[in-house]
Structure prediction request, 262 residues.
Amino acid sequence: MTGVESPAYVPGHGLLRGRTAVVTAAAGAGIGGAVARRFLEEGARVLISDAHTRRLKAHESALAEEFGPASVAAQPCDVTDEDQVRALFDAAVTAHGRLDVVVNNAGLGGTASLADMTDDQWTRVLDVTLNGTFRCTRAALRRMRDSGGGVIVNNASVVGWRAQAGQAHYAAAKAGVMALTRCAAIEAAAYGVRVNAVSPSLAMHPHLVKVTSAELLEELTGREAFGRYAEPWEVANVIVFLASGYSSYMTGEVVSVSGQHP
Prediction:
């Protein structure tokens, strides 16, 4: 299959002007980092978080230089640690005075056949990807319930819908994120909070490409309708839509950012 070239970068349109947001796992070149940048371009004030403190601070400095120090702050957070999650959301309110949007992007992958998978491999992926999303969703709902509304966007995966060898732990975690999203949305509606999720197929960035074999990358991109992987900002664009007023009637939805919805 011949790949279609990536489209031109879409400029911001002020869709999140005046909003404050928390984005987890936002220190790198992947989806979280792209979301933070897109939110800033759309006029939001952003608190980025990540378990990798050095990279987090470096990304904060770069964004602050480009968008202004008043627009971005950073708070280290390991989403497997409840105390750190609470501190993250406390910092969001301290930094910006309120909390409008939360993007739960933190997740952990890995490849292991089920027969050879250890309890630690299974538990670690579930704790970061599913339990971490639960902890952050719970913390966000407690604050949004009291402030009168907000938006939560979770990052799931098409692997939560379809089978892939070596991905039982990751697929189970992402399917759990989808179910958590739907259930949270029903409860959160009474507080004026919307909860949705994106489900990307293959979003790559330079660091990830370096650790992915050419054979695997060719196989994965061959499954895509355009014959290429998504740019992280293309997934971030859909998250912007879900965070904005353009999706005001949507909640409990899992939006496939791919051509691979079952």
User: Anything to note?
Assistant: The mean pLDDT is 92. Strands lie at 20-23, 45-50, 72-76, 101-104, 150-155, 193-200, 254-257.
